[in-house]
Amino acid sequence: MGGWWVALIGGALVLLVLLIFVLQNDQRVQVSFLGWQAYLPLGVALLLAAIGGILAVAIPGTARILQLRRAALHPSPPRSQASHITPAAAADQQPPANPQQSQSAPGSDAAR
User: Fold this and answer.
1) What are the tens digits of pLDDT across the range 30-75?
2) What does the pLDDT look like over 81-102, one tens digit per residue?
3) DSSP of the chain
4) I need a surface site. Which of 15, 40, 78, 91 has the fewest CB within 10 A?
């Protein structure tokens, strides 16, 4: 229960500092975004920009963490090298059906 109190007090202090920041920066500024325009207090505009930046980093980061966690919990089977060989290359790598045929030169009488 002590950890919860520390987190609660820390969160309250952060909110108090943000409130003081917004109240001290009350000068109106024009904010334009994708054709939308508004006049906001400077503190509010900066706070909204910070929240947008946090979301721009947190959303893709969370997606990547979930992707890595899923891959760690459910590993895929290793890919064999045979799946990377084309059919023409596989035909070149097949051993001959009769080992005696591979020892003789083509057209010689030793294979007969």
Assistant:
1) 988 898 898 988 888 888 888 989 999 999 999 999 999 888 888 7
2) 555 656 666 566 666 666 565 5
3) -HHHHHHHHHHHHHHHHHHHHHHH---EEEEEETTEEEEEEHHHHHHHHHHHHHHHHHHHHHHHHHHHHHHHHSPPPPPPGGGGS-HHHHHHHSPPSSHHHHHSPTT-GGG-
4) 78
- Alpha-carbon Rg for the chain, nearest whole angstrom, is 34
Confidence (pTM): 0.51
Q: Are 54 and 62 in contact (CB under 8 A)?
A: no
State how far Cα 7 lies from the chain centre.
Answer: 29
Closest listed residue to residue 40, CA positions, set 93, 8, 48: 48
